[in-house]
From TrEMBL:
The chain crosses the membrane at residues 20-41, 61-80, 100-122, 142-160. Belongs to the GtrA family. PANTHER family: PROPHAGE BACTOPRENOL-LINKED GLUCOSE TRANSLOCASE HOMOLOG. Keywords: Membrane, Transmembrane, Transmembrane helix. The lineage of its organism: Bacteria, Bacillati, Actinomycetota, Actinomycetes, Micrococcales. InterPro entries: GtrA_CellWall_Glycosyl, GtrA_DPMS_TM. It is a multi-pass membrane protein. Residues 18-166 form the GtrA/DPMS transmembrane domain. Its main location: membrane. It is found in: Membrane. This is GtrA/DPMS transmembrane domain-containing protein.
């Protein structure tokens, strides 16, 4: 069986640029949802949402806010990536969405772990509390942790979605668009 070599083409670069633009809009949606949740709920993002007994670990409100923001941004990003980035056709496939969502969940786990490292007081990666003291929106640690982690996990998300979710998008005819494509096969 001949081995397929992967080479980066103009198509891949274009897809990555479109994915980055969609991702940028997703970052704005994601951060907007986190800010809204932070302002509309009475909870401090760093306070405990759920203790993970019998350990000393906790799920904090910033984990909950980040997870809800992920759901909203993931739905928006799927549609934009399906239509524009990978040009996957007019038909939404449940399997394609489930793959996108599964990858999103895996990336969310990585994001939450990174976020915990940025927010935990004993972490070597902890964001500084003297500068990010929460006095203004720009000085809120949870917002910066959210932004940093979303940007950090975007390349992983692109790679996994390109290889698994939208792998058959290029060159495959969309059966909903053309009956000629089906008769040629």
């Amino acid at each position: 069986m001949p081995s397929r070599r992967f080479s980066i083409t103009r198509t891949h670069v274009g897809e990555m640029m479109r994915f980055a633009l969609v991702g940028g809009s997703g970052v704005l949606v994601n951060l907007g949802v986190v800010i809204l949740l932070n302002r509309l709920t009475p909870f401090d993002p760093e306070s405990v949402f759920l203790p993970l007994l019998p350990t000393d670990f906790n799920i904090r409100w910033f984990h909950v806010f980040a997870s809800l923001a992920f759901l909203v941004a993931n739905l928006c990003n799927f549609e934009l990536n399906r239509i524009w980035t990978f040009r996957a056709g007019a038909r939404t496939e449940r399997t394609r969405f489930l793959r996108f969502f599964t990858i999103g969940l895996a990336v969310l786990v990585v994001q939450l772990l990174l976020m915990t490292l940025l927010m935990h007081p004993y972490s070597p990666l902890e964001l500084p509390t003297d500068v990010l003291d929460g006095t203004t929106g720009f000085r809120t640690r949870a917002y910066w942790a959210q932004l940093i982690t979303v940007i950090a996990v975007t390349p992983l998300s692109f790679l996994l979605n390109r290889l698994w979710t939208f792998s058959r998008s290029r060159g495959a005819p969309d059966p909903a668009r053309s009956t000629k494509a089906r008769s040629r096969v």
